[in-house]
Amino acid sequence: MNTPTMVASLIFAFVLVVLIAWLIRLMMRGWRHRGQLQETLIGTLPSVPDTVGPPTVAPTRGLYLGCTLAPKWNDRVVVGDLGYRTKAVLTRYPEGIMVQRSGAQPIWIPHDSVRAVRTERGIAGRTIPSLPTRPNDGVLAIRWRLPSGTEIDTGFRADDRSDHTRWLGAGDDAAPGDAQQRSNLEDDQ
């Protein structure tokens, strides 16, 4: 390789590295800015209670996919560590739902805050492939209301997707907010 070609290649490589570093910096800045905007919407999460009753739905192992602002399945919450995917165990108690995440703080969803437990095709920008007979069973989505009043969806994919039916079967008393919402709608009409 002659000297002018080598110099041109090195200059091109340097410009390419600078361009990639600049793009990564812009993406990180956007992530932080989004987090600052969401801090007031999210507020503080409910604290984990000291004691809980026996589980009403046995622990389910799987993957925590993140949280999104409801009803936008693609608007990821990036405040704190809510935006990071991680292995998790999901357990339902009479007092609420516990999401114990690997390498992150647990998330406690009080029973009174739960609005709906349903299955979806995807959440937080992730679409999970599913069977043709059950097109919307890729993600277990829990819609709940934060103390700040904002509703979010928490996404969880069980290692064994047949476990999703156990969570949906707990549905009659599982979502007190739905019954309250229905009665409010009937009162308005």
Question: Overview of this structure, please?
Answer:
The protein has 189 residues and is of the alpha+beta class. The chain has a domain of 113 residues: PH-domain like, CATH 2.30.29.30. It is 31% helix and 30% strand. It is built from three helices and nine strands. A seven-stranded antiparallel beta sheet has the order 4-3-2-1-9-8-5. A hairpin with a 2-residue loop joins strand 2 and strand 3. The termini are far apart.
Can I get a quick summary?
The chain is built from three helices and nine strands.
- Overall morphology: elongated
Compute the number of strand runs: 9
If strands are numbered along the chain, what order do they take across the biggest sheet?
Answer: 4-3-2-1-9-8-5
At CATH level 2, the architecture of the domain at 57-169 is Roll
CATH superfamily of the domain at 57-169: Pleckstrin-homology domain (PH domain)/Phosphotyrosine-binding domain (PTB)
Oligomer: single chain
Keywords: Membrane, Transmembrane, Transmembrane helix
Protein name: Transporter
Region (Disordered): 153-189
Domain PH: 42-169
